[in-house]
UniProtKB/TrEMBL annotation:
Keywords, comma-separated and alphabetical: Lyase
Family: Belongs to the DapA family.
CDD domains per the UniProt record, alphabetical: DHDPS-like
Species name: Mycobacterium asiaticum
SUPFAM superfamilies referenced in this protein's UniProt entry, alphabetically: Aldolase
Transmembrane segments: none
InterPro entries found in the cross-reference section: Aldolase_TIM, DapA-like
PANTHER family from the UniProt entry: 4-HYDROXY-2-OXOGLUTARATE ALDOLASE, MITOCHONDRIAL, DIHYDRODIPICOLINATE SYNTHASE
Protein name according to UniProt: Dihydrodipicolinate synthase family protein
Keyword RNA-binding set for record: no
One MF annotation (Gene Ontology) recorded for this entry: 4-hydroxy-tetrahydrodipicolinate synthase activity
Length: 334
């Protein structure tokens, strides 16, 4: 675990490679329970079978907004326990966003005590008074904890920090050392790097990596929280091989690999089901049911209740058909 005072020395060397954002497998009537065995299997698969060096826990894909505080704590504890049993050096990233600063503090203190390496706070989802309010939220947490902190700038919050607002948080909160820029605004990420060059930055728009931003030092050689385990299998390490080329600065080879392996086409074939609900097409979502259906196509356990918890909708049949078809075209399933 990186303490607050060590965070900025620790982050550049530690945050490297693929970091898997884990879903929550539900079971029981209406998904009111969690299939803990399935979750343990998922952790072991990501860290052991795929060899991915980082985990991203209890964030949007995990449906944190539908989990109790106790469930979120237990999910993190199991990720640490199972992940470090397979790889003692696995970096465990805990997402501790919550509707109240006090709940966020409780989760962040738990992450610190449980042995997570860093805690990320997503921009508050309600009543955020711009960057000033988000800064106040971060200051409240940082004053009461001693763990490395990261920002998660996602449009699912309803408010996205500007580059200047994020840089101010970095300047005023020494524990903040990293950010996941999830709003697909490369120009803002570039500006943020100019304002806060020491901030470890992951840009969700993957095209910037092909544009040489890693070589330029704008972005880091890591995926802080993505679903790499849904883009490859132990037998066909498509995703890892692609990113190994990018991180080795073999950009032409990476572009050729993306095209020839089918990964580029796979993105198109999947469509927008992971992050877009058609009934609210202007809103960026993390549709848990879509991610879990993709996992089930690959044979991963998702619990006997395959849906998201409310208020998310159930995944429609046409989404399942499109997702399964994409995997068959890529060749990851027969």
């Amino acid at each position: 675990m990186a303490t607050a005072s060590d965070a900025r020395r620790w982050a550049p060397g530690a945050l490297r490679g693929i970091g898997d954002s884990l879903y929550t497998p539900f079971c029981g009537a209406d998904g009111d329970d969690i299939d803990w065995d399935a979750y343990r299997t998922l952790v072991r698969y990501c860290v052991g079978d795929l060899g991915h060096p980082m985990l991203w826990c209890t964030s949007g894909l995990a449906e944190f907004w539908a989990l109790t505080l106790d469930e979120r704590k237990r999910l993190l504890e199991i990720a640490i326990e199972e992940g470090r049993r397979v790889n003692p050096d696995v970096v465990v990233q805990a997402c501790t966003a919550a509707m109240t600063a006090k709940d966020c503090l409780e989760l962040t203190l738990h992450a610190q005590q449980a042995g997570a390496d860093i805690a990320y706070i997503q921009t508050p989802m309600m009543e955020a008074h711009g960057g000033e309010g988000v800064l106040r939220f971060f200051c409240y947490i940082a004053a009461r904890t001693d763990i490395a902190l990261g920002m998660f700038n996602s449009p699912s919050s309803g408010y996205v920090l500007t580059a200047a607002e994020a840089a101010r948080i970095y300047d005023e909160v020494p524990a903040v050392c990293a950010t996941k820029e999830g709003a697909f605004r490369p120009e803002s990420s570039r500006r943020l790097h100019e304002l806060a060059p020491g901030l470890v930055l992951w840009e969700c728009d993957r095209t910037v990596y092909r544009a040489g931003w890693l070589r330029a030092g704008i972005v880091c050689p890591a995926q802080l929280g993505t679903t790499g385990y849904l883009f490859e299998t132990p037998e066909r390490r498509l995703f890892s091989e692609y990113w190994d080329l990018v991180w080795a600065d073999k950009l032409l080879e990476a572009m050729d690999y993306g095209r020839e392996s089918g990964l580029d086409q796979f993105d198109l074939d999947l469509g927008g089901w992971f992050t877009c609900y058609p009934g609210r097409s202007d809103y960026f979502t993390h549709w848990g049911g879509a991610f879990k259906y993709a996992a089930s196509v690959l044979g991963l356990p998702i619990g006997d209740y395959p849906h998201s918890r409310p208020p998310q909708a159930m995944l429609p049949p046409e989404a399942k058909t499109q997702i399964e078809g994409a995997y068959r075209r890529l060749g990851l399933v027969d």
